[in-house]
Design brief:
single chain; mainly alpha; globular
Amino acid sequence: MKKLHLNSLLWAALLMSVASAATADIREGSQVYAKNCEICHAGDGSGAVPDAPNFRYGDSLIRSDTDLFNSISSGKGMMPAFQGVLSEQEILNVIIYLRTLYQ
């Protein structure tokens, strides 16, 4: 019974995240990116500091939205955690914006 309850909670969380991703706003993501991410990742997403991923060539965007969300929320390597700094919706907006940088 406990496992069934956990599965139900996981499905509910997944459905909420899918609904939030569907309402993500590229324009808002661009603004949040410019304010919080551009200094290290460059305006065009090419990476302004060593070891910053290059979003223009898609290597870092082959990852799922969930994986990107977790990296942004928790931080990764030199990148600080943005959980508590950015809302979940702002992070989703940034992810949708990042996907527009791929060339």
